[in-house]
């Protein structure tokens, strides 16, 4: 089960505000796409499948990029650390 | 006590009008009251003729210069009687740490003159004192960083090994009993800080191990019976070189409100306070660092976030409990700005010559 991320607000321009921590981030359109799916409650595999369909990218490259992005979200505390095994 | 149909008609005195780079809360409190529709007499109590609030004619009807807290309660009471000779006061709202004990001493005498206050009791005030807070936290199951209270250099040397960060990355905070804090990574630095701070503020000195993480601040209002009237959590976004917040954003971390509720309940706190809380980087645990027994200087943010706590205080003190306040909105930003206020010379003359400035005639 994915973590509850309802405290994250993502604007259409890719500006993310974490209502719990008070931190804010800017992200590019691919990052915003992934965040939107995470906030929606999608698990890693669902996001990966969706990326392969929507972007001109190989499955291996998509998986690598997605994992790198998820790691950076965890490092910046956007994703909770306890959800590491669930999301990735 | 005068009977008021609304707290908004009440005559309210607010202290702490300094607004330099480490501003006092008085101007923010006054703005909050006015924003909530307060139309009664608003009196500013200034310590210095150059306190910025003295010149804020759009906020205050009158300004009085009052003696510094070090002059004691008799001197303060004498000046408050002068204020009362010009018109009734319904509520006095002190905003500085150093004033709290004075106003506690005077609260009954003031009440006899019709002036209400909404202050913590002596026990609550004492339990949150810097020198006692760690003990209070441990006995009431609140997380607190490793803390030692020392009364001499030799006792500081004795506990240094124990209190310092074993990795050497984080400093030990050497804190004065009322104000001031210095970072120390070595015993030599701590010794210098001990000597300097104790000479200024006296003993004891508090040693607190720094933890990696970030700070939240929560502005709270307690009803004195264990209930939390309201609380607004904030994270600093920008700080001055003294580490004071210059900008911030309200947050909705539910654990902060739970902690505030538990703390207000444990202290049976009456009135405003500010909780300083550290969220530890590795463990995510919330550690209480300090409790300031007054509104923070950023309290106007509470009004901006939909939970006007200064107005709620005036209401509960003058008209009874305001009931459950709407939750504060998270994601509301504030940023301070330095503004030049222009005044004629008569304001400076008046405060210096008579200790009083009348911006608007009483009742106007």
Summarize the structure in words.
The complex is a heterodimer of chains A (88) and B (364). Chain A contains 4 helices and 3 strands. Chain A has one domain. Residues 83-88 of chain A have low confidence and may be disordered. Chain A has a 3-stranded antiparallel β-sheet with strand order 1-2-3, with helices on one face. In chain A, strand 1 and strand 2 (15-18) form a beta hairpin. By secondary structure, chain A is mainly alpha-helical. Helix content of chain B is 32%, strand content 24%. Chain B is built from 11 helices and 15 strands. The longest helix of chain B has 15 residues, at 187-201. Chain B starts with 11 loop residues before the first strand and ends in a 6-residue tail after the last strand. Classes of the chains: A mainly alpha (88), B alpha+beta (364). The A-B interface holds A 7, 9, 17, 19-24, 81 and B 214, 216, 234-235, 237, 248-254, 279, 284, 330-331.
Question: Can I get a quick summary?
Answer:
The complex is a heterodimer of chains A (88) and B (364). Chain A has 88 residues and is mainly alpha-helical.
The CATH architecture of the domain at 7-117 and 339-358 in chain B would be: 3-Layer(aba) Sandwich
Side-by-side strand order of the widest sheet of chain B: 13-12-9-10-11-14
CATH domain fold name of the domain at 7-117 and 339-358 in chain B: Rossmann fold
Radius of gyration of chain A, in angstroms, nearest whole number? 12 Å
In whole angstroms, how far apart are the ends of chain B? 22 Å
Tertiary shape of chain B: globular
SS summary, helix count of chain A: 4
Keywords:
heterodimer, A: 88 residues, mainly alpha, three-stranded antiparallel sheet, 4 helices, globular, disordered C terminus, B: 364 residues, alpha+beta, Rossmann fold, Dna Ligase, domain 1, six-stranded antiparallel sheet, five-stranded mixed sheet, 11 helices, 32% helix
